[in-house]
Structure formats: structure tokens, C-alpha cells
Automatic annotation (TrEMBL):
<dbReference type="InterPro" id="IPR004465">
    <property type="entry name" value="RNR_NrdI"/>
</dbReference>
<dbReference type="InterPro" id="IPR029039">
    <property type="entry name" value="Flavoprotein-like_sf"/>
</dbReference>
<protein>
    <submittedName>
        <fullName>Protein involved in ribonucleotide reduction</fullName>
    </submittedName>
</protein>
<dbReference type="GO" id="GO:0010181">
    <property type="term" value="F:FMN binding"/>
</dbReference>
<dbReference type="Pfam" id="PF07972">
    <property type="entry name" value="Flavodoxin_NdrI"/>
</dbReference>
């Protein structure tokens, strides 16, 4: 059964990358949007976004990381996006998961799962399960 790839961005703190790598260890294809070639590419089919939020409490600041916005400039990529995974930190209060939630609201795509920082083993297991269900749903049409 084809596996939906997870395109992710992670800053220098690498928390989201660590989570993505746990998914990869479970056989999930992952693509790093920090790689210029990846963010200039088009997803060959349905894909899932994994993104942290960077709001810093500033209303004027973009919450979605620039490499994610770059990838989403492609209308093909926007159309093929099927769901969003968010990494955040509850210390940011009302801004918790701001990027994932704002994108979900604009794109009308579901938030599949939210976790803090690099996630727990339970977060990884839950996400693996959700993505496997997504694969099965797509295979069933
Ligand atoms: C400057 C700054 C702003 C942040 N703003 C938010 C925010 O608005 N909402 C949120 O949920 N998390 C926020 N976070 C937490 C990060 O999204 C979280 O730590 C994430 O795991 C970072 O992933 P990364 O290390 O892959 O970049 C912020 C972190 C920093 C350093």
C-alpha cells in the first residue's frame, strides 16, 4: 500500500525533525522542506504537512515558517495537501499550534494530530496509526 509522504520543516532546534525521524523509522517517507530542492518541488500525490509554529506573540509575524509557505506557493501542492500535523508548545497559550491551525482554517484541511516539542513515544505511535489509516483510506478510494 502506498504511504503518504510527510513534508516537514524544522528550525535549528530540530524538535520537529526528531519527530519526523521517528516516523521514518516506522517506514514513513519524509521530505525535509529545509532542502531547497524539496521546497521547490511538487508533491507527486497526496501529502501531509508537519510544521512547528513561530508566532512569538507578535500579531504581525507570519506563523507559518517561510520554507512551508514557499512549498505552498505551488497550487498543485496546495491541492494535494490532505492533512496537517503540528508541533508546538503550550507555553505560547492562545498561539498554541497557531501555524497548523491557521493553515487548517484557510485550506479546509484537517489537523490530524498536535503534539509538543519533539513529541512523546505515544505521540509517535498515535501519528503512525493515523497515517496508516490515511493510507488505507486513500487505497480504498
Ligand atoms: C520564537 C519562538 C516562537 C514560538 N511560537 C510558538 C507559537 O506561537 N505557538 C506554539 O505552539 N509554539 C511556538 N513555539 C514553539 C515551537 O513551535 C516548538 O518548540 C517546536 O517544537 C519547534 O520545532 P523545531 O525545533 O522543529 O523548529 C515557538 C518557539 C520559538 C523559539
Amino acid at each position: 500500500m502506498p504511504k503518504v509522504p510527510v513534508y516537514y520543516y524544522s528550525s535549528v532546534s530540530n524538535l520537529t525533525r526528531r519527530f519526523a525521524e521517528h516516523l521514518a523509522q516506522q517506514g514513513r517517507p519524509i521530505r525535509d522542506l529545509a532542502d531547497a530542492e524539496v521546497r521547490a518541488s511538487e508533491a507527486p500525490g497526496p501529502w501531509v504537512l508537519l510544521t512547528p509554529s513561530y508566532k512569538a506573540g507578535n500579531a504581525d509575524e507570519a506563523t507559518l515558517p517561510a520554507p512551508v509557505r514557499r512549498f505552498l506557493r505551488s497550487s498543485t501542492n496546495r491541492r494535494r495537501l490532505i492533512g496537517i500535523l503540528g508541533s508546538g508548545n503550550r507555553n505560547f497559550g492562545a498561539h498554541y499550534q497557531a501555524a497548523a491551525r491557521e493553515l487548517a482554517s484557510i485550506s479546509h484541511r484537517p489537523i490530524l494530530y498536535e503534539f509538543e516539542l519533539s513529541g512523546t513515544p505515544e505521540d509517535v505511535a498515535a501519528t503512525v496509526r493515523i497515517l496508516n489509516e490515511l493510507d488505507a483510506g486513500l487505497a480504498a478510494g
